[in-house]
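Format notes (please read before filing issues)

Several people have asked whether sequences and structure tokens are stored in separate files. They are not. Every record keeps both together, in the order shown below: the sequence lines, then the token lines. Line labels are part of the format and must not be stripped during preprocessing.
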Amino acid sequence: MIFKSLHPHSKIWLYISSIPINNSYKEEISLLFKKFNDEWKSHGEKISGSLKFIGNNIVVIGANYLGEDMCGRSVDAQVRFVSQIDQELGLDLLNRNNLAFSILDEINIFSFSEIENLIKEDKINRRTRFYNNYCSKNSDSLQLPFGDSPLGSRYFS
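Then the structure lines:
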């Protein structure tokens, strides 16, 4: 479970920034999230959201919403919130080409375009821990061997 306080079927989003998120940015993001979360609703119902930082490059947002699917407006609002953070702090959380791997217990960020060369140079392999940006619910694994990820299956059949 990514968020112990949220239901296993809660919706989550994982964002990766190649630009490190320092402690003052984390504090600012946390304050902005609190304000956002106070107003966050789906189908008129309050959404109980959570925010988590993984190292200095990963932000995870969770929505403890167990009704029908969240309305599109509530999902769009969450993306606009992340876009606001990107613009105000100069991050690149919405860059879906950013991929995160744990190498020697440190988070390393690479661009999708680097993957083939990283494999050829044996900097990553099927066992390298991959931060699963395909996560969509709280019970999903945050990290898994790259070869077991949806992206890794493309390189390791």
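For reference, the curators noted about this record: The radius of gyration is 16 Å. The first strand starts at residue 11 and ends at 16.
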